[in-house]
Design brief:
Strand content: under 5%
Number of helices: 7
Mean pLDDT: 87
Structural class: mainly alpha
Order of helices and strands: HHHHHHH
Largest sheet: none
Helix content: 55-70%
Shape: globular
Low-confidence stretches: none
Length: about 140
């Protein structure tokens, strides 16, 4: 006879004491999902690449870690030392939205566009700037 604890909480054991084989089942990955994910990543790289080119910056900077943030700070006309602020928890969120709003203003969009479509939904905002008619104009500080 099983004890109360074994019968109540031990749901992964069979009657003979061996673990259920489904407990160790490997996760299955969908090749279709992987293809969509890679296509999305490539689309975003191309979008940010085009945004950088429109701003007169090197497009390849969009694929270089940390340097892409440096270039984005240049597009937003913010000092380069702000890159350090991206490493401070909670401060990085505020800095992200400030830079997003400044990037939107540099391309002739308003602050709401920068906050929502670049800051939160960048996968929508960057392609709009990249493939749309927006042109870059450096913001005076």
């Amino acid at each position: 006879m099983k004890s109360f604890l074994a019968s109540t909480y031990d749901t992964t054991l069979y009657n003979d004491g061996y673990l259920d084989s489904s407990y160790y089942a490997a996760p299955s990955y969908s090749p279709v999902g992987t293809i969509f994910y890679l296509a999305f990543i490539i689309f975003m790289i191309v979008s940010v690449w085009k945004v950088f080119v429109k701003a007169g910056k090197p497009g390849w900077a969009s694929i270089v870690p940390f340097y892409n943030i440096w270039v984005l700070l240049e597009v937003a006309n913010r000092p380069g030392w702000w890159l350090i602020l991206y490493f401070i928890p909670l401060v990085n969120i505020v800095i992200h939205f400030i830079v997003s709003i400044d990037v939107a203003k540099a391309f002739g969009k308003d602050g709401a566009f920068g906050f929502f479509l670049i800051g939160i939904f960048g996968f929508i905002g960057y392609p709009i700037i990249a493939f749309g008619k927006a042109s870059y104009k450096k913001i005076a500080r």
